[in-house]
Task: inverse folding
């Protein structure tokens, strides 16, 4: 990866809606170069998706959303290891994150649901019944402080003097 | 009975910034300020946490006048590593309450009434009044005639038998200009030939966007009459911590400390502890902040030029100095009218001394959203005037 590609990624990480023209001016290059560079990064799956970090608490007021962290212990398949089981779990639309980890459990997933009941049903009806899943441990998320490097409640640094020499 | 005040203070001209500052501060409404003079980042958390932890541990006492030994050790190592300066931590480094205090006590250590100090302008507002408070005279060099870089010929012409010192601020507030090595070499030669001090304010040195920061302090034969001022405010976003340092020959440090020990006693202990952490673990965040300033500089200066305000691309700090001469307005008129009609605050260049008239200072240490909105509003202001 070139240094310019890394810099473009940094800009997009902070604001994925920054225009090619603005990015080009920030990084002292041309909009055409930025456009083709982004296309390349999309094509080779370095940029997987553009998304938005949302404060779910605000959504929850009207639309009710609950999240849970679930640790899963798995009996790996002969020759296939964890891969096939991982794919089966990850494909569920309410699994929004999925990791293979070291430690007492094998998988860590983050799941959304409309309510705690909803998530509990998912665990009992969908997860626990998958062959090779040995045990699960569910932790409901009470509050999000930070996601993707972004503080949900950003620090107020608006107290700079308006004019200073 | 009439109770008098100091004549020296009475004779000081009021700050050019004050009137405009009061106007902006007392306004309601949605003002976008490009008139700030500090980073838009909060101090990196690891630095703040160190100060908080020190407070929790009960570190609330005085330090030695010179400053915490550990801090001076780290500064000495930092200066060696980053700038290739050699300053002994025991005798050649003094910790001050910001570079502001450093400037004041250095002038008071050097100047006698009648001495002359060469001051390339436009420049940061504090030097002139502090020089004049010592009863010394400012000999101004208008650098707007030479792309805001001090012209060695002009300096040579300004030297008299009374010249005691020259003040250099590089990268510059308000212009962002960085004095090239070739010019510093010539100034160094003049200082050796005519025997005057060089006061080098390097507070923005880490925010230089070129590969190498041009230096005067480590040129051959310069250490014995060069004073380097630096601090933590801009590079580490620690403006409120009030933490700076003077690096100079032992003889100067001793004299500056004579004043410092009575007038200030020491810099705040919490700030000094935070300063240690800044030097130990603040580099990553510094690089992040610097990259952010650079990207914003690139974009913002381009926009100013596009909308019709000729602006030289600055090589350092986080200011640019667009020319407003084509509007036919004075700096102050421009700033006032822009503020009243479009709620954007900039600082009139005239407050920074000779050569600042016809320019305004814009700080780009603000979010891209604010900068974008500011450009839209300034462009609208310029269109309305046509």
Result:
């Amino acid at each position: 990866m070139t240094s310019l590609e890394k810099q473009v990624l940094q800009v997009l990480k902070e604001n994925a809606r920054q225009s090619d023209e603005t990015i080009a001016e920030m990084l002292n290059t041309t909009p055409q170069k930025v456009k083709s560079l982004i296309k390349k990064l999309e094509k080779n799956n370095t940029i997987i998706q553009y998304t938005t970090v949302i404060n779910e608490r605000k959504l929850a007021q009207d639309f009710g959303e609950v999240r849970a962290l679930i640790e899963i212990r798995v009996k790996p398949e002969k020759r296939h290891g964890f891969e096939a089981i991982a794919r089966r779990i990850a494909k569920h639309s309410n699994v929004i994150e999925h990791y293979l980890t070291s430690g007492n459990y094998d998988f860590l997933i983050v799941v959304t649901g409309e309510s705690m009941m909803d998530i509990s049903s998912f665990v009992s009806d969908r997860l626990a019944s998958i062959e090779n899943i040995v045990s699960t441990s569910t932790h409901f998320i009470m509050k999000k402080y930070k996601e993707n490097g972004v503080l949900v409640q950003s620090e107020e640094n608006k107290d700079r003097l308006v004019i200073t020499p | 009975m009439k109770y008098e005040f100091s004549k020296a203070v009475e004779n000081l001209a009021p700050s050019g910034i004050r009137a405009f500052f009061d106007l902006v501060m007392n306004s309601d409404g949605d003002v976008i300020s490009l008139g700030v003079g500090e980073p838009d980042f909060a101090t990196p958390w690891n630095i703040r946490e160190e100060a908080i932890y020190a407070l929790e541990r009960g570190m609330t006492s005085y330090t030695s006048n010179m400053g915490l030994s550990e801090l001076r050790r780290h500064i000495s190592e930092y200066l060696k590593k980053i700038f290739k300066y050699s300053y002994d931590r025991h005798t050649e480094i003094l910790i001050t309450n910001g570079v502001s205090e450093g400037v004041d006590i250095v002038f008071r250590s050097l100047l006698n009434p009648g001495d002359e100090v060469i001051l390339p302008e436009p420049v940061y507002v504090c030097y002139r009044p502090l020089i004049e408070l010592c009863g010394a005279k400012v000999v101004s060099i208008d650098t707007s005639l030479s792309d805001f870089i001090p012209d060695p010929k002009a300096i040579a012409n300004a030297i008299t038998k009374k010249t005691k010192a020259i003040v250099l601020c590089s990268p510059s507030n308000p212009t962002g200009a960085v004095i090239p090595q070739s010019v510093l070499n010539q100034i160094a030669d003049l200082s050796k030939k005519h025997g005057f001090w060089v006061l080098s304010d390097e507070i923005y040195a880490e925010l230089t966007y070129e590969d190498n920061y041009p230096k005067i302090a480590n040129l051959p034969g310069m250490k014995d009459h060069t004073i380097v001022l630096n601090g933590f405010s801009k590079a580490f976003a620690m403006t409120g911590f009030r933490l700076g340092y003077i690096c100079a020959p032992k003889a100067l440090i001793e004299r500056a400390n004579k004043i410092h020990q009575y007038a200030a006693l020491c810099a705040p202990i919490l700030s000094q502890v935070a300063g240690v952490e800044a030097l130990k673990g603040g580099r990553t965040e510094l690089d992040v902040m610097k990259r952010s300033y650079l990207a914003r500089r690139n974009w913002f200066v381009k926009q100013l030029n596009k909308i019709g305000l000729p602006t030289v691309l600055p090589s350092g700090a986080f200011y640019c100095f667009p020319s407003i001469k084509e509007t036919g307005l004075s700096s102050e008129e421009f700033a006032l009218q822009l503020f009243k009609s479009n709620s954007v605050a900039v600082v009139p260049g005239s407050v920074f001394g000779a050569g600042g008239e016809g320019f305004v200072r814009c700080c780009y240490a603000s979010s891209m959203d604010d900068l974008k909105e500011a450009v839209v509003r300034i462009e609208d202001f310029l269109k309305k005037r046509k």
In short: The longest strand of chain B covers residues 163-169. The interface with chain A takes residues 15, 17, 20-21, 24-25, 31, 33, 35-38, 40-42, 124-126, 173, 291, 295-296, 298-299, 302-303, 345, 347, 351, 368 of chain B (CB under 8 Å). DSSP finds 13 helices and twelve strands in chain B.
